Structures are given as structure tokens and as C-alpha cells.
């Protein structure tokens, strides 16, 4: 019993030391890095590379839309919002999960989320959660702040 | 230089060993535990204990509403939605940040988020991010899925 306590205390010290050297955070940092690569891919509209970041069987808000459906959704977003740009405000990484608060400042051409934006510039956020599987996004749970857009029209 | 490499490798081994014993996760688990205590406090409407979880100078979506304003907001929510209950679907803990996907299945009496719900039972989610300071919620960034409620009316 005393040995187990000693071992636990030794390990705690090692964890504290390694944490201060940034070693514990490797996985967390890796996932954040993959995520930043994914967001860069979206902003470049580099759809040929999307499969490096998104799983073939990806689900969004509980519905399996697969990679092809995911790409179509993103292409439609950029078609409806020509100046669309994803800005990361906050990333919370807890592998295999990651949460991100995204900030948008853009000009949807016509209707957007059922609202007649019609070329007005609007700012809004999206709070979005991801589950990664083998380094790729497998599940997405997203909520866009529609009320904030309404308030600007 | 060789000593540093040796030290780093020793620490890596310690981290792996301690991770398998669940020691690395202590802080993350602690924060999740505090958060679950906060949600239990809300569901019990135990407002006298709210200051154990929420910082005096709390901000919500960038606006400092302070503990008193936070309590008023929650009391108003429970007044407008008598069967309100917070259900945690997913917690992502990355101290000092925590993200949570909350699920609601409830019956707002009249208007809710500007929508005429008028006693209809609705299901919706909230994706919410928190920043903790000394174990208490200091900042909140929340997005409620208003579009999901609209689709049910």
C-alpha cells in the first residue's frame, strides 16, 4: 500500500514536471493542429484535400451525411456567401473531442438560415463540437447563432 | 543535450504510466466534476449555492452581467419554462476551459427566444463554452439552437 502511494506521488511529480515541459499536451496540441489544418483547408476551398480531415462516414447533428454530403454543404455555403471565412475564436481540445467557437463576418447574397439577409454584412458565431476518429472528423454537432443574425436585419 | 533527451524520454514514460493510472486526467476530471455540481445546482434551483460555481464578475457572450444578473437570468428561465431541466449530453474539458452540449426537452409557457411556443413541448440543444477562474465560471459563450425550436412550431 505504501509502495502504491509512493509510486502515485512519484508519478504526480513526473506529470507536473513533464506538464511544465509541454509533454502532456502533445495529443491535445496535435488535435488542435489537425483542426487548424482543417479550417485552413475550408478557407482555401481546397475540396480535394477535405478527405484528409473528414471521415468518409461523417455525421452532422446526428445524421450521417458522409464526406460527399459534407463537401456539398460546404460548397453550397461558399456559393451563398462568397466572402465566407472561418475565424477560430476559441478551441477546447479533449481528445477525441474538440470544441470550437467560430466567428463569421460576411455577406450572404440572399436567404441564409431562412432569413432574408440579401447582401447585408452580418457578424455571428457558431459553437461547434467534433468527435475525431483516427485523426479525422467523424461527428459534428453545430449550433449557429441565428438570433444574432436576426437582430442585425 | 543527451541529458535533456534522456530526461524528456523518462518523462514521456512517466506520463504514459501515470496516464494509464488516470493521474494526468485529475484536473480535467476535477473541472468536469465542478461542472456537474453546477448543473445539479441549476436543476435544484438552489440559488443560494450559485456563488460556489459562478464568479462574482461573470460575463455572458462578452457582457459582464455579474452573479446577480446571472441568477436573475436563470430565475427568469425557470419562470418562463416551469419544467426546465438541464441535461448534459457531452462535456469537453480542457482547463481552464470547458465546453458542454446541453439537451432540453421542455414546455415554455408563452414566448421563448422571440418565438410563440405557447405551451408546446419542444426539444433543442445549447452548445456552451465556459472559462473558469479559481474553480468558478467567469465567462460563458452560449448558442441556443433557435432554428430547431422554430422547426417544431
Keywords:
homodimer; 153 residues; alpha+beta; Nuclear Transport Factor 2, Chain: A; 6-stranded mixed β-sheet; two-stranded antiparallel sheet; 4 helices; globular
Q: How would you describe the overall organization of this protein?
A:
The structure is a homodimer of 153-residue chains. Chain A starts with a helix and ends with a helix. Chain A has 4 helices and 8 strands. Chain A is α+β, with helices and mostly antiparallel strands and 153 residues long. Chain A has a single domain, classed as Nuclear Transport Factor 2, Chain: A, CATH 3.10.450.50. At the A-B interface, α1, β3, β4, β7 and β8 of A face α1, β3, β4, β7 and β8 of B.
List the helices and strands and how they pair.
Two copies of one chain form a homodimer.
Chain A: H1 2-20, H2 26-43, E1 54-60, E2 63-64, H3 66-80, E3 87-94, E4 97-106, E5 111-112, E6 115-116, E7 122-133, E8 136-144, H4 146-151
Parallel strand pairs in A: 1-8
Antiparallel strand pairs in A: 1-2, 3-4, 4-7, 5-6, 7-8
**Which bin fits the share of residues in helices of chain A?**
25-40%
Largest sheet of chain A: 6 strands, mixed
Looking at the structure, the CATH topology of chain A is: Nuclear Transport Factor 2, Chain: A
Low-confidence stretches of chain A: 14-26
Content of β-strand of chain A: 25-35%
Measured by residues with Cβ under 8 Å of the partner chain's Cβ, the largest interface is:
A-B, 35 and 35 residues
Strand order of the largest sheet of chain A: 2-1-8-7-4-3
Structural class by secondary-structure content of chain A: alpha+beta
The geometry of chain A reads as globular
Query: In DSSP terms, counting alpha (H) and pi (I) runs of 4 or more, how many helices of chain A?
Result: 4
Order of helices and strands of chain A: HHEEHEEEEEEH
Please identify, by name, the CATH architecture of chain A: Roll
For the record, the CATH class of chain A is Alpha Beta
How many extended strands of chain A? 8
Amino acid at each position: 500500500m505504501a509502495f502504491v502511494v509512493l509510486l502515485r506521488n512519484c508519478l504526480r511529480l513526473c506529470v507536473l514536471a513533464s506538464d511544465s515541459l509541454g509533454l502532456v499536451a502533445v495529443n491535445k496540441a496535435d488535435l488542435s493542429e489537425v483542426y487548424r489544418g482543417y479550417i485552413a483547408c475550408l478557407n482555401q476551398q481546397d475540396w480535394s484535400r477535405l478527405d484528409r480531415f473528414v471521415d468518409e462516414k461523417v455525421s452532422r447533428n446526428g445524421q450521417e451525411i458522409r464526406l460527399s454530403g459534407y463537401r456539398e454543404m460546404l460548397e453550397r455555403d461558399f456559393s451563398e456567401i462568397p466572402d465566407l471565412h472561418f475565424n477560430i475564436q476559441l478551441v477546447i481540445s479533449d481528445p477525441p473531442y474538440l470544441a470550437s467557437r467560430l466567428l463569421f463576418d460576411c455577406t450572404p447574397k440572399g436567404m441564409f438560415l431562412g432569413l432574408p439577409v440579401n447582401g447585408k454584412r452580418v457578424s455571428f458565431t457558431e459553437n461547434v463540437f467534433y468527435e475525431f476518429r483516427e485523426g479525422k472528423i467523424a461527428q459534428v454537432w453545430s449550433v449557429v447563432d441565428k438570433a444574432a443574425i436576426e437582430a442585425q436585419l
